TrEMBL record:
Cofactor note: Binds 1 Fe(2+) ion per subunit.
Species for this entry: [Brevibacterium] flavum
InterPro entries membership: Alkb, AlkB-like, AlkB-like_sf, Oxoglu/Fe-dep_dioxygenase_dom
Protein name (record): DNA methylase
Binding site for Fe cation: 144, 146, 200
Pfam family, any one: 2OG-FeII_Oxy_2
Length: 230
């Protein structure tokens, strides 16, 4: 039963919606069973690459060590050479699971019905790489652009576990104005079109909001699926 202390933000109806040009938010896109299966599958891959240069770690960047753990699938983004690579020190990057590829197509079919600029991608999209991000409840990701891909194809982004606040800014700089969208467990966001290179980040995670049965007790997993080449 709801209590006085429940946050009203989380009780508003959450219809599928076009947020702005090229950006679509589809709440509850994944069933709990699908979320659980994705977490299980990701965990298996994490185990298979543990102790190798492809292990899920908090990457070090020019501005310091990230608080988010990252696992690269399909291709690995090499932070030293700024290139997508197929292998690191002879260790091949784990392939993109078919389930991820299928989900990306399903995501674009749904998103395309709400956004003209996403519609053309439902046929043409090639899922080539995925990034699995793990946020502990105190982790965050600063405002950035996803600019490492040549392709203008949209980014398909799935959330599991604790709610994360997705902050969407403009395309010119990381400053306001921005829109904050709570991404709950099972939500899908697709960003492409005029906002493919928009600045975005995750300023915070809401601890203890992961639903029972999603596969994660605490923290948040975000899976972004991308097309790299033109
Ligand atoms: O965690 C998220 O929802 C966003 C992740 C992200 O922006 C990225 O991996 O580039
Ligand atoms: Fe990003």
């Amino acid at each position: 039963m709801p209590t006085l202390f429940d946050d009203p933000l989380h009780q508003l109806p959450r219809p599928p919606r076009r947020v702005t040009a090229g950006v679509v938010h589809l709440p509850n896109f994944l069933s709990l069973a699908e979320q659980n299966a994705l977490v299980t599958q990701s965990r298996e891959i994490v185990r298979s690459v543990a102790g190798t240069p492809l292990a899920m770690v908090r990457p070090k960047t020019k501005s310091g060590q990230m608080s988010v753990h990252m696992l690269n699938l399909g291709k690995h983004w090499a932070t030293n050479t700024y290139r997508y690579v197929d292998a690191v020190d002879g260790f091949p990057v784990p392939p993109l699971p078919d389930s991820f590829v299928n989900l990306a197509h399903r995501a674009l079919l749904s998103a395309g019905s709400l956004s003209n600029s996403l519609q053309s991608w439902s046929e043409a999209y090639r899922a080539e790489a995925a990034l699995v991000n793990y946020y502990s409840p105190d982790a965050s990701m600063g405002m950035h652009q996803d600019a490492n891909e040549e392709s203008e194809a949209p980014v398909v982004s799935l959330s599991i576990g604790d709610t994360g606040i997705f902050r969407l800014g403009g395309t010119l700089n990381r400053n306001k104005p921005w829109t904050d969208i709570p991404l709950m467990s099972g939500d899908l966001i697709v960003f492409g079109g005029a906002h493919r290179r928009a600045f975005h980040g995750i300023p915070s995670i809401e601890a203890n909001t992961a639903p029972a049965g999603c596969g994660l007790k605490e923290g948040r997993i975000n899976i972004t699926i991308r097309q790299l080449a033109l």
